[in-house]
Amino acid sequence: MGPLEPKVNELIVAVICFAAVFFTFAKFLVPRITKTLEARQEAIEGTIEQSEAVHAEARQIHAEYQAELSEARHEAARIRQAAADEGSLLIQEVRAEGQRRRDELVASARAQLEADRIVAEAALREDVLRLATDLAGRILGEPITDERRAREIADAFFAEVDTDSAAKA
């Protein structure tokens, strides 16, 4: 008998053993395996749904972050512009104040110079009058005592010099 012609009683025992194993698998193991596979499938699907929800939430948070970042950039630009405008206003105010103070100082200095010039001119005229009187007295050989007359001559001379200098200017 060979493998192609088995003995009937061995074939019956093999079929009964096969049926017992098949029945055991079908009755006990396949439902457990199916149940475990279904649980795994549900867990995987739940995890996928959860990861999609987390991913969607992450995208939403990222979009909110980008919006806040953009708003913060706009606010920073506005603050920088306001500071630059305020700085330029302060610079203009300081320049105007400096210009005003400079003008005041220049006007004060000019007034002081004019006053000093007038005082110096008066002192020089007195000195010139005194020196001219002394010189005229030396030339004549006797002192000149008529101060009123000497002053009139000197004033006429200075008036002539003033008109000449005004005409040249």
TrEMBL record:
Subcellular localization(s) per the UniProt record: Cell membrane
Keywords, sorted A to Z: ATP synthesis, Cell membrane, CF(0), Coiled coil, Hydrogen ion transport, Ion transport, Membrane, Transmembrane, Transmembrane helix, Transport
Cited Gene3D superfamilies: F1F0 ATP synthase subunit B, membrane domain
InterPro entries xrefs: ATP_synth_B-like_membr_sf, ATP_synth_b/b'su_bac/chlpt, ATP_synth_F0_bsu_bac, ATP_synthase_B_chain
GTP-binding among keywords: no
Topology in membrane: Single-pass membrane protein
Membrane-spanning intervals of the chain: 12-30
Coiled coil (residue ranges): 48-82
Record-linked NCBIfam families: ATP_synt_b, PRK05759.1-3
Family from the record: Belongs to the ATPase B chain family.
Reported function: Component of the F(0) channel, it forms part of the peripheral stalk, linking F(1) to F(0). F(1)F(0) ATP synthase produces ATP from ADP in the presence of a proton or sodium gradient. F-type ATPases consist of two structural domains, F(1) containing the extramembraneous catalytic core and F(0) containing the membrane proton channel, linked together by a central stalk and a peripheral stalk. During catalysis, ATP synthesis in the catalytic domain of F(1) is coupled via a rotary mechanism of the central stalk subunits to proton translocation.
Subunit organization: F-type ATPases have 2 components, F(1) - the catalytic core - and F(0) - the membrane proton channel. F(1) has five subunits: alpha(3), beta(3), gamma(1), delta(1), epsilon(1). F(0) has three main subunits: a(1), b(2) and c(10-14). The alpha and beta chains form an alternating ring which encloses part of the gamma chain. F(1) is attached to F(0) by a central stalk formed by the gamma and epsilon chains, while a peripheral stalk is formed by the delta and b chains.
Name of the protein in its database record: ATP synthase subunit b
Species the sequence originates in: Streptomyces camelliae
